Amino acid sequence: MLRKFKGVFIISFIIMAMTMVMPAHIQAAEEKAVLATAPMVSPPITRKKPATVIVELETKEVVGQLKHPLTGDAVEYQFWTFGGTVPGPFIRVRVGDTVEFHVKNDASSIQTHSIDIHAVNGPGGGANASQTEPGMNTAFQWLALNPGIFVYHCATAHIPTHIANGMYGLILVEPEKGLPKVDREYYIMQGDFYPAGKMGEKGLKEFSWEKAQMEHPEFVLFNALSAGGKLEAKVGETVRMYVGNGGPNLISSFHIIGEIFDVVYPEGSMGTPPSKNLQTTLIPAAGATIVEFKVDVPGNYILVDHSLFRAIDKGCVAILSVTGDEAPKIFKPLKSGAPGGH
Ligand SMILES: [Cu+2]
């Protein structure tokens, strides 16, 4: 008996000693996810093996402005958010990663919040495991089985109201070999908003159930409450955009005026050949896509939902500013305002 105990002790000691001297890359890696604020994205994953990734996300109820980016028309609105922004932070993991997901609900919240991550294989996408009361924490763990760009959103009743108030974001599950290298990556997310009362009146607006049920948004916006930076590129660069649609109601006809998407991963699909040379791509409510394009000519390129009343009248507009040398072989004006004839 004593001999057996000694044997176990010696084996345990050897394993412990080996672990202590084992190179770091052989040990199961554990890392904290780098979150990014829209329109920026988390950096590409360079490691070649899965890891345990710890994600910490905080739900917050904040007052901010719903603002039309062209006209400047704005109202104060009571948002509910992940991380204080709409959309919530960009999260990036890799196929095979074990994700330890922590939800903290700020003590100042009035509502319980939670998360349904569309990248999860498991009941509710984590919704039941993450119902988090104000001032509390929850956590759950999941294995990233499918590559793609996925929406996450709050899943506390009444769920459409939590989504309408801004509780959504994107998580990228990179394929094992990663995505092709590009020069710039951006994160865009559309949402439709239903503030109560008449627009133009002063004062804080809350959510209008009636307008939402009728699907009559006052605002349709990209990155409604996020000042993480500008969309910029230089002539000759290839740009990748991860574009999500939080809804809760509308389907987006995503288009960039003056550009053609060289590559589209339709609805974020990976593992199938991507589509090429598309003008406008559909993004369902609670869906996402990835578009890539090379910018050839300098100027301002306008991102829109090409259901254009939403863009011009309700604010679904963002601008990608491209600088660099003119490229007259590709595009040049010939004549402006000349009278008569051709
Ligand atoms: Cu919520």
Features:
4 helices, six-stranded mixed beta sheet, binds copper (II) ion, 342 residues, 39% strand
Report on this structure.
The chain has 342 residues and is mainly beta. It is 11% helix and 39% strand. The chain has 4 helices and 21 strands. It has helices spanning 2-21, 159-164, 209-214, 308-312; strands spanning 30-32, 52-67, 74-82, 91-94, 98-105, 116-117, 137-143, 148-153, 168-174, 184-193, 204-205, 219-222, 231-234, 238-247, 252-257, 261-265, 275-278, 280-283, 287-294, 299-305, 317-323. The strands form 4 sheets. Strands 1, 2, 3, 5, 7 and 11 form a 6-stranded mixed sheet that branches. A 6-stranded mixed sheet has the order 12-10-14-19-16-17, with no helix packed on it. A 5-stranded mixed sheet has the order 13-21-20-15-18. A hairpin with a 6-residue loop joins strand 2 and strand 3. The chain binds copper (II) ion. Residues 80, 111, 113, 154, 156, 162, 167 line the site of copper (II) ion. Copper (II) ion (CU) binds next to loops.
Task: Compute the separation of the termini in Å.
Answer: 103 Å
Number of helices: 4
Helix content: 10-25%
Largest sheet: 6 strands, mixed
| Class by alpha and beta content | mainly beta
Order of helices and strands: HEEEEEEEEHEEEHEEEEEEEEEHE
Count the E strands.
21
Mean pLDDT: 92
Shape: globular
Strand % is 35-45%
Q: Radius of gyration in whole Å, from Cα?
A: 23 Å
Bound molecules: copper (II) ion
Query: Low-confidence parts lasting 5 or more residues at pLDDT below 50?
Result: 13-26
Summarize the structure.
This protein is mainly beta and 342 residues long.
